[in-house]
Structures are given as C-alpha cells and as structure tokens.
Design a protein that fits this description.
It is a single chain. The protein is α/β, with parallel strands linked by helices. It has 2 domains: 128 residues, Cytidine Deaminase, domain 2 (3-Layer(aba) Sandwich), CATH 3.40.140; 226 residues, 3-Layer(aba) Sandwich (Dihydrofolate Reductase, subunit A). Strands 10-9-8-7-11-6-12-14-13 form a 9-stranded mixed sheet, with helices on both faces.
C-alpha cells in the first residue's frame, strides 16, 4: 500500500481536480503490475496497473489501491468493473472515496461480485496525499498554499524595500515548478503595483511545458490593476481573474475601468464585501465551484495575513535564503494586526525539509486542515 501511495504522488499537478491514486497488483507474493492516474481524463490507476501486467493476465491477483475504485461512468468506465473482469480476487483499499457517486459503492460492487475487500490500510497516509481533493469535496474550497521567501532572520525585504533576490536561482526554479502544478496563484494589489509580476510558470528548458497553466488571481478591494500592467496585457494568453470588493462596484469610474479590463480578457469574481476575511472566504467558494483544487498565495504580506485570519491556509512553502537584513522596520512575510495570544496561533507540522544549494525549503501543513 505504501508503494501505491508513492505511485499516486507521481500524478501531482496533472490529475486535478481528480484525486491522485496509485495501484499495485500482487500475486504469489510478487508485484506483477503497477500504475497511477497520470492525467485528468486519462485512464485511472487500476486500469494502468492491469495494462502493465505481462501478457495481460492479472487473474488471481490482489490489488492494493490508495483510494476506493470508482463505480460510475465519468470520463472513464468504472474501475470496479475492470478489476472484476480482470479476475482480481482481493482488493485492499487505503481510503474510502467520499465523492457522492462512489462513497462506498465501489467496495460494495466488488463484494457483491465475490471479491474479498479490505479497507482502511494506511488510511492516514493516503489522506495526506489526497488532502486537496478531500478538502474540495468536504468544504467546497480549494487547498491553499502560502508561499514566501525570507532571510535567516525572517525578513522579506530590506528597510528600503529591496527584495530581489533573497534566494538563489535553484530555489526560484523550484517555485516555478510549484506554480506549474497549482490551479491559481493569488496576489494582492500592493504586489501588482510594486512588482508588476507575470505570475506564470517559467522553465529553464524552453521545450518544457507546464503541467497546467494557473489562473492569476488578484484581490482588489479598493483599486484595480493598471491596463498596462503585465498581468492585464497578457490576460488573453494566460487566465487572469480579479477578485472584486464591494467598494469598487459602487464607484462609476471603477466600474468603467472594470468593463475595459473585461474586454482585455480579465474575468471577475464579485464578493459583495470589503472585509478582507470575508472576501477570502467568498472567493474560495467561487474558486471551488470552478473546481480549482490547489491555490497558491504568493503575497504580499497583507493578503497572506487575510488568508491566515480567515483560517484558510492549509500548507506553507517557506524558502529561507542565506542572508540577514535586520532592522525593526524590515517587513516579515505576514502582515496584518498579528496574533496577540500564543494559544490563538494555528499549529503547523513539518512535512518536508530540503536544502537547495545555499537555501532551505520547508513545507509545513496546518494541523487543523481537513
């Protein structure tokens, strides 16, 4: 089962909004086939594993699957039926699929066909891999990743506002890889005005194409991106969505500017509030309705603070560069009013720790995330 979970992770960035799933086929104590869900709309893990078996004979094997086999006709036929036709005699499942069209139905179909079924094996480990998919199903909201680069002493810029570059080229390339596997990249208007970013995934290999092209998301409470900004001038090639507060919609000049931005290719999410926390929650629900599974918040500090205040940060990717800026006025990665009492802070646990040349990358996951 642990091997099935490892295989599942190979589909990260290619299969969403479907879940990452791996499958291992075992007969007489030996692995005879493996597979994982490789891309959205493509064959599921069980089908890939059956196809991988020498001479196509999987009869009498045990299938170890990280998520319950589907039992409905979607973009592909039911995997439960494929396992039965292949002569699989036992199926071991890590996690029951809460999707309404499955939700135990796959296991029931297997049992009704005389297949022995065991579930709950390494369930917690499988749930970690499927966490974004599970959150989207349970809450209607995407998994939220906060990302920032900071110095050894926790600053994201000098007292004069200089920030390029805190980390080296290899760490920045890793960020572009992260961008290539998420559905949305969010920033606030302060970042748009200060940095005029593109927010696209770029690779040092010109022949490489990203697994997916993320929608650029700009949170706009009281002002809109300039029409000559790089985000707007590329909106017809790379998706751009503006998350709009109520104040902007109440001003005639802003509505006219918004109409021009729409003509230039920008999409709009209206939140009907100017409260930053409520804007975040309302926007995430609309992103979930669009089946966005993973959204990354890149800054600035005020927007990240709004997501934290809304209780909507599930994971943090923190890049630590080998610099120290000092200065009591040098900004940190999270703005806002901050937390007054230690017990009120959300708790995170380290998922991975990696050295990237002279930089360090730490991935944290919120203990309270679904």
């Amino acid at each position: 089962m642990r091997r099935a979970i490892e295989l599942a992770q190979l589909g990260e960035g290619d299969v969403e909004p479907n879940p990452m799933v791996g499958c291992v086929l075992v007969r007489d104590g030996e692995i005879i086939g493996e597979g994982f869900h490789q891309r959205f709309g493509g064959a599921h893990a069980e089908i890939e594993a059956i196809r991988s078996v020498a001479r196509g004979d999987a009869s009498g094997a045990t299938a170890y699957v990280s998520l319950e086999p589907c039992c409905h006709h979607g973009k592909t036929p039911p995997c439960s039926e494929a396992l039965i036709r292949a002569g699989i005699t036992r199926v071991v499942v890590a996690l029951t699929d809460p999707f309404s069209k499955v939700a135990g139905g796959g296991l029931k179909q297997l049992r009704d066909a005389g297949v022995e079924v065991t579930s709950g094996v390494l369930e917690d480990e499988a749930a970690v891999t499927c966490a974004p998919y599970l959150k989207l199903l349970r809450t209607g909201k995407p998994w939220v990743i906060a990302k920032w680069a900071m110095t050894m002493d926790g600053r994201i810029a000098t007292t004069a506002g200089e920030s390029q570059w805190i980390t080296g080229e290899a760490a920045r390339a890793d960020v572009h890889h992260l961008r290539s596997r998420v559905d949305g990249i969010a920033v606030g208007m302060g970042t748009v005005i200060t940095d005029d970013p593109m927010l696209n995934a770029r690779s040092s290999d010109p022949s490489a194409s990203p697994a997916r092209i993320a929608t650029r998301l700009v949170f706009c409470r009281h002002r809109l991106p300039p029409e000559n900004s790089r985000l707007v001038t590329t909106a017809s090639q790379i998706p751009l969505t503006l998350v709009i507060g109520r104040d902007l919609l109440s001003r005639g000049e802003a509505r006219q500017q918004l109409d021009r931005l729409r003509i230039l290719g920008a999409n709009v999410i209206e939140t009907n509030t100017d409260d930053e926390v409520q804007m975040v929650r309302a926007a995430l629900l609309q992103m979930g309705a669009l089946r966005m599974t993973n959204v990354m918040v890149e800054g600035g500090g005020e927007l990240i603070a709004s997501f934290f205040s809304a209780g909507q940060i599930d994971e943090c990717h923190v890049y630590i560069g080998p610099l120290a800026f000092g200065g009591r006025d040098a900004p940190g990665p999270i703005g806002g009013a901050g937390i007054a009492r230690l017990p009120d802070s959300p708790r995170f646990q380290i998922m991975s720790l990696e050295q990237i040349q002279d930089d360090v990358k730490v991935v944290y996951r919120c203990s309270e995330s679904p």
